[in-house]
Structure formats: structure tokens, C-alpha cells
Design a protein that fits this description.
single chain, mainly beta, five-stranded mixed sheet, four-stranded mixed sheet, 38% strand
């Protein structure tokens, strides 16, 4: 199901998985204060996904933050943040989902903000970015084998980001830069095995995501993309994570730990002009990690 309103069907209409995290009435995150004299480290907020709900804080503090997605479900799940314009509510958003048609454009009062893309069930993915104060919704747009996006099954959660009154946290130090364009990734330097922090920038006119998967031996990125459409037979890939849809000008920091092998990068978001997934416009690539 490719719905323009569900522009953030980021990952695959694929496998399956969800998880859970701690709820709170006030901002709650793992302590991330640095030692005296060193930069302040971003607070870490855990979002646990399961079929089909989130356990996450109700309120977090604005600024440079780390969102940690833990996937506890048997299906795949991601975190797509949606920021609401003033005067609009989470209830308005979720009610609107029920009445959207496949060709309907997204309402102008919602804005996609990146979140962690789906790891395998039992896995986790984090990303760090700067969030501004306001009202958000955490959404899973991944469809299962029935082609129904998880958001349609109630997988949404309201999130309030309140202004910060403390010291400003520093962005992570990245050793790889990836720039997204319409419709490609520019990677510098080449990604090697081991731990890295990727600075991911969207310089394109449209929203884009970066879904990362390790390919099964002898399988190609094209085969993985084709499997994602029908979800028949054993999957030819292992989801690693990445980031969900992010708007033009957005920057996120993505930690990865990759073993040697063949990998694919995919953007499954629907195109603003023809509604086809961006992989149909060439936004898919395969690369070797050594």
C-alpha cells in the first residue's frame, strides 16, 4: 500500500517487528552529562516498539537528542516522527489516517522528521539530531504482509518536545558523510567494517530515507527491493536500520557497526510527482564492506 499521505512508509512493506520504551509525564532520558569541562552529551530517549504500539516518554527536552529504537515485536518497526503545526492535535492526525485515500497528499500541517529506521526483531538502532520544541507523533508506517501500514493498526504515540533550559549538547563526531540527493547517496569516504558515525544530510528537494540492509550471500540489492514488494519466500537481506524520512536540509548522526559483506541502501518513500517509490527512480545502491 503506497499512500502519498503515508509518505514515510520508509522501510519495507516488509517482514515484521515492533518494540517498547518507558513512559513518563516529564522528560525522562538516560543521563548523558559529560565530565567537567567537556561538551554536554545528548540525552538518550528509548522508544520500544511492539505489535502494534510504542512504549516511549510522553515528553522530552528540545535540543540535540539521541533516539534509541528497540524492536521487541515479531514484525519490523521503525520510528517516523511527524511534527504538527500549532493548533493541530495527535487525535486529528490519527482520525485523518482512517479516511485517507491512496492518492491523497499529506495535509500541509504535518512535517516529517527523521527517526531510527527498523532493525531486525530483537535489534536496536539509534540516531542523534536536533529537535525543536513542539507537538509530535511517533508513527510506524511499515506495512506487514497484509500490506496494511502499522499506523492503521494504532501504532502511533503523541510526543511533546519542551524547550530546553540547560546547556546545549554537542553533536557527535562523524567519520563518514552521506549526502542524499534526488535520487542518490554521495558517500565519503567509503564505508568500511567496524563502528562508524555517519553524518547524513538531505540536500534533495524531497524527503528521503536511508534504509540499510545486509544482503544474503549471492543476493543483490535489486532482489531485496523486489522481495520487499511481495514479501514472499525467505528474505534476501537482514535489516540493519538507518533513518526514516527526513526533510530537505535535515541532518542526523547515525551510529553503525558493520561486519564485512554486501549491503544495500534503499529509499522506499513515494515520489512527490508520480507516487512511485524512490527505488523506482534509481535510489538504490549496493556496496561492499571490507
Amino acid at each position: 500500500m503506497r499512500v502519498r499521505f503515508l509518505w514515510a512508509i520508509s522501510s519495507l512493506g516488509v517482514l515484521a517487528a515492533c518494540g517498547a520504551a518507558k513512559s513518563a509525564d516529564a522528560p525522562v532520558g538516560e543521563s548523558a552529562m559529560s565530565t567537567a569541562g567537556a561538551p554536554v552529551v545528548p540525552m538518550v530517549y528509548t522508544i520500544t516498539a511492539k505489535d502494534f504500539s510504542y512504549d516511549a516518554p510522553d515528553t522530552i527536552t528540545a535540543g540535540m537528542v539521541t533516539l534509541r529504537l528497540v524492536n521487541q515485536g515479531p514484525e519490523l518497526h521503525h520510528v517516523q516522527l511527524v511534527k504538527l503545526d500549532a493548533g493541530h492535535t495527535a487525535a486529528e492526525f490519527t482520525e485523518g489516517l482512517k479516511h485517507m485515500k491512496p492518492t491523497d497528499p499529506p495535509p500541509p500541517w504535518i512535517h516529517g522528521v527523521a527517526g531510527p529506521n527498523t532493525p531486525v526483531p530483537g535489534g536496536e538502532q539509534s540516531l542523534t539530531q536536533e529537535l525543536t520544541a513542539g507537538n509530535y507523533i511517533i508513527v510506524c508506517f511499515i506495512p506487514g504482509p497484509d500490506q496494511i501500514p502499522h499506523a492503521m493498526k494504532g501504532m502511533t504515540k503523541a510526543l511533546t518536545v519542551v524547550p530546553s533550559t540547560g546547556a546545549t549538547a554537542a553533536a557527535p563526531t562523524a567519520d563518514i558523510t552521506v549526502k542524499m540527493t534526488d535520487y542518490a547517496w554521495e558517500v565519503s569516504p567509503a564505508i568500511t567494517a567496524g563502528k562508524h558515525v555517519i553524518r547524513l544530510e538531505n540536500s534533495a528537494a524531497q524527503d528521503h530515507e536511508m534504509f540499510i540492509a545486509r544482503l544474503a550471500p549471492g543476493k543483490s540489492a535489486a532482489e531485496a527491493a523486489a522481495w520487499a514488494e511481495k514479501q514472499q519466500g525467505p528474505p534476501p537481506m537482514k535489516p540493519i536500520g538507518g533513518t526514516t524520512g527526513m526533510a530537505k536540509g535535515s541532518v542526523v548522526y547515525l551510529p553503525v557497526d558493520l561486519v564485512p559483506g554486501e549491503y544495500g541502501l534503499f529509499c522506499f518513500l513515494p515520489d512527490a510527482k508520480d507516487g512511485k517509490p524512490h527505488i523506482a527512480h534509481g535510489m538504490i545502491t549496493q556496496f561492499a564492506v571490507k
